[in-house]
Amino acid sequence: MSVAPIAGRAAIVGAATTEFSKNSGRSELRLAVEAISAALRDAGIEPAAVDGLNSFTMDNNEITAVARNLGVPRLTFFAQTPWGGGGGCGTLTHAAAAITSGLADVVVCFRAMNERSQQRLGQPPASSASPAMVTGRALDNAWSQPFGISTAASMMALAARRHMHEYGVTSEDLGRVTVQERDYAATNPNAWFHGRPLTLDEHQASRMIADPLRLLDCCQESDGAVAFVVTSIERARDLPSTPVVIEAATQGAGSNHVQMATPYREDITGAEEIENVGRVLWRQSGRTSADVDLAILYDHFSFAVLAQLEALGFCQRGEAAEFVRSGAIGRGGQLPVNTNGGQLGEAYIHGFNGIAEAVRQLRRTAPNQVADASAALVTSGSHVPTSGVLLARG
Amino acid sequence: MTISTVYDSVDWDTIVTEGRVLPARTADSEYFWNGLIEHRLLIQRCTGCQTLRHPPGPMCPQCQSLEWDTVDSAGSGSLYSWTVVHPPYAPGFFQPSIVGLVALDEGVRMVANVIGTPPDALNVGAQVSVFFADQAEDWTVPQFRLVAG
After folding, report:
1. Which residues in chain A come in under a pLDDT of 70?
2. What is the Cα–Cα distance from A357 to A366, expressed in whole angstroms?
3. Which domain holds residue B34?
4. What is the pLDDT of residue A127?
5. Is B118 part of a structural domain of the chain?
6. Would residue A264 show up in a list of annotated catalytic residues for this protein?
7. Mean pLDDT estimate for chain B
């Protein structure tokens, strides 16, 4: 099947989350070490055996502070994968690469944030009398921020409108993604919107944030942490939990990239980064889009789910709205998507809670269990340089 | 008051951008911001292969030449996409502000505000043209208006 040396050689052997809330009441560092120590207990591995530690950018925790508090005395591999929410699966990619190349034996990947109570990522920047510091990011921002494009929603809105224009997609079509995810969230006790399904009318009544994106097209804001323990499949076989094998893993960037949802690329209606990720995942794993039981597609915005269904080949370009309308991503559908309720319904932990859901599904312990789930595709943030993994029940 | 009524009551010749985060710039891009002060909309051009590019950069991605000059855009184009930004607002904008992704006739795209028109008058493909609003000695902001007809 596979020819890539990284494929199928490492596994997730421990996973844990904190509760998800709007105000955790404790520090981001405490959230990180709570989730990591729970994941290590789940794996049956002592902190002293950890030699790799990885998060992704926008996590405020210093790797050293996390290691110090956990009692991890030495590290041979440590990293922060770039591009925020695009980096989530990249931490697993780098963990697998470190393990298969001999850089580390046990790598912990984590994301901890008080995103709602401390640092809201969806807010525009504060007023500034003088030009921003001349970082590469500030230079990219110069072409849109002075004109009011300064939030993720406003960047995605330009791509969403063009996609909707070219393919006849409506606000109701976006809303059906949210409604479907809230249906899953309603029966997931860990979800913020547990017990609170949504109607399409309620979606349509929600206010505009960045036209055509409404409030209920935008993911939640959440506090919480998620952590995973990754090791070799040989070592995984001696551990108590059912290993979740990293069958394929990659990062993916695309052409002519500026900021989020680059408006300068010739075709802005697709999800080119995810297309590039998908191509590698299918090649490494030897699977096709018909060979996965569910998908966790990064849903910072409902529109992103439509774009990714097309980019990964689950349906043709312009057909995702119809795919969702047919019930394909719902319970018992052809491809259940974001079965935890996603970031629209469960919580927004920068996509890391979606990876935790894939692990639960493959261990067959998920609240909304997909029958006999044995393979799951997971993506990180679309419309930015991103990453993805294909996970399989070991 | 409806958005249209609000837009009708605004004096669009006075655009106040006070409080905005101003653009960071380097030797690769300062020609653009300096051009605005002279009411010129400049597009970077590779002198190796004549390809236009925006946003600017030091190297031509087509031929890898580091040599470039600029050409004056006529300032006409069409709306490739657009959004209306609602709260949360960044400081220094008319609220709600319309942001256009303008496909300039020369063949590059540019992000800028579309001014003087309520959002319900906008369509993908609508014709727009640039005008320049002086804000400070070293800061002129390019804006677009719908072309009548």
Report:
1. 1-3, 127-132
2. 7
3. 3-8+23-146
4. 63
5. yes
6. no
7. 91
Q: What confidence tens digit (pLDDT) does each residue in A207-216 have? A: 999 999 999 9
Q: Residues 283-342, chain A: which have Cβ within 8 Å of B?
A: none
Question: What is the nearest CA distance from A181 to chain B, expressed in angstroms?
Answer: 25
Tell me, yes or no, if A298 is annotated catalytic. Answer: yes
Our count of domains for chain B comes to 1
Length of chain A: 394
What domains lie within chain A, and their CATH numbers? 10-118+219-393 (3.40.47.10)
Which residues of B fall within a CB distance of 8 Å from A123?
88
Is B44 near chain A, with CB under 8 Å?
no
Q: Which of A163, A140, A104 is nearest to A311 (CA)?
A: A163
Domain of B79: which CATH number? 2.40.50.840
Q: A347-356 b/e with 16+ CB inside 10 Å = b?
A: bbbbbbbbbb
| B45/A contact by beta carbon, under 8 A | no
Pairing label, strands A375-379, A106-114: unpaired
Distance CA A239, CA A43 (A): 7
* pLDDT (average), residues B94-100: 90
Q: Is the complex ipTM higher than 0.90?
A: yes
Tell me the longest C-alpha to C-alpha distance in chain A: 59
Overall average pLDDT of the B19-30 stretch = 92
Q: Is A145 on the interface with B (CB under 8 A)?
A: yes
**Does residue B40 sit within a domain?**
yes
pTM score, two decimals?
0.96
